[in-house]
Amino acid sequence: MSRILVVGGGAIGGITAAGVDADVVVLDANEAHVAKLSDPGLVINEAAPVKLEAVSTVDALDGEFDFALIAVKAPLHHVAIPPLVERGGIGAFVTLGNGLIQDRMVELVGEGNLLACLVEWGGSNVGPGELIRDSEGGYAVGELDGTITDRAQQLAAALEPIGHTRVTDNVRGMIWTKLQVNSTFTGLSAISGLRYGGVAEQGADAVFALWEEGVTVARAQDLRLEEMHHVDPYAFGPAPLRKMMEHMANVRPSMLQDLDAGRETEVDVVNGGVATKGRELGIPTPHNDKVVELVHSMERGERAPDPQYLHEVAKA
Fold first, then answer.
1. According to the 3-state scheme, what is the secondary structure of the chain?
2. What is the pLDDT of residues 44-89, one digit of tens each?
3. Is the Cα dihedral 2, 151, 79, 178 positive or negative?
4. What percentage of the chain exceeds 90 in pLDDT?
5. Structure pTM?
6. Given Cys at both, which of 6, 169, 268, 285 links 272, Cβ 3.0 to 4.6 Å?
7. What is the mean pLDDT of the chain?
8. Which of the listed CATH numbers 3.90.190.20, 3.40.50.720, 2.30.30.100, 2.60.40.3200 matches domain 3-169?
9. Where would one find the signal peptide in this protein (predicted)?
């Protein structure tokens, strides 16, 4: 059985830790949350508590781990990861986060020490020791160079009980496929205050504009996008949008949760990731640029989420 360290016990990390087929330890800086994880245990969707071994400092960790699953947000990577690299004893680091974070993480953990893992479901934090899983789905695991390795298959087997997990030779294409969803729906959810379903109903023009920008930038990189929730990313329109919302309408993404809590968001690696790559390739991305602008203004307290901003993005 694998031994896995989950770094960050919030919605993605906590739900993963509770269901993974492994000897698991959670590392989370929130001491109140850590205490609840240990006793009475983590409550997911009001089910019976699941007791987890959890610590709040790197110094409290004991032994070696096959994998360290990094589930903290991108702005915290430079704080959370270096102490683990210095400690050693970790076979491979694994990205669980959103956006174009992989190359930045390689700089922190070293070439060859990173696996990419795409999470295809969503969750929300309720309070210490309590989380909600608000959509179904599994994971996709892969090496950044496209090879199929034993360690990727080992991790996929451990994650399978949580949701169907596949090993892919196209992880960079899948990273952008997920970025399509996040840059389209997460940013719009954050600026509007709506769940994904509300965004689809009230902001379809903005949805299609952002989606087209992302596909254009992906094509310029020769990336191969893949189906997500039975939707062909190259043939996105009203009917595929309705199909996608059958699985995702209830998602309340972390970017909106961060704005509500007064925390820094990941917009710079989500919509900002599309925009940055577009600039590198000489491709305008005005709709993604507008989302970045609006989210940063909300981080500064200059605006508050409101559905009216969906129309601003559509007109950008």
1. CCEEEEECCCHHHHHHHHHCCCEEEEECCCHHHHHHHHCCCEEECCCCCECCEEECCHHHCCCCEEEEEECCCHHHHHHHHHHHHHHCCEEEEEECCCCCCHHHHHHHHCCCCEEEEEECCCEEEEECCEEEECCCCCEEEEECCCCCCHHHHHHHHHHCCCCCEEECCCHHHHHHHHHHHHHHHHHHHHHHCCCHHHHHHHCHHHHHHHHHHHHHHHHHCCCCCCCECCECHHHCCHHHHHHHHHHHCCCCCHHHHHHHHCCCCCHHHCHHHHHHHHHHHCCCCHHHHHHHHHHHHHHCCCCCCCCHHHHHHHHC
2. 999 999 999 999 999 999 999 999 999 999 999 999 999 999 999 9
3. negative
4. 90
5. 0.89
6. 268
7. 96
8. 3.40.50.720
9. none
d(CA 280, CA 260): 32
Q: What is the pLDDT of residue 228?
A: 81
Q: Residue 202: count other Cβ atoms within 10 Å of its Cβ.
A: 17
For residue 229, the model assigns a pLDDT of 77
Single out the residue of 214, 220, 227 nearest to residue 183, CA to CA.
Answer: 214
Q: How many CB atoms lie within 10 A of CB 1?
A: 9
User: Given this chain, do its domains 3-169 and 172-315 carry the same CATH topology?
Assistant: no
Does the structural domain 172-315 have CATH classification 3.90.1170.40?
no
pLDDT digits (tens, 9 = 90+) for 256-307: 999 999 999 999 999 999 999 999 999 999 999 999 999 999 999 999 999 9
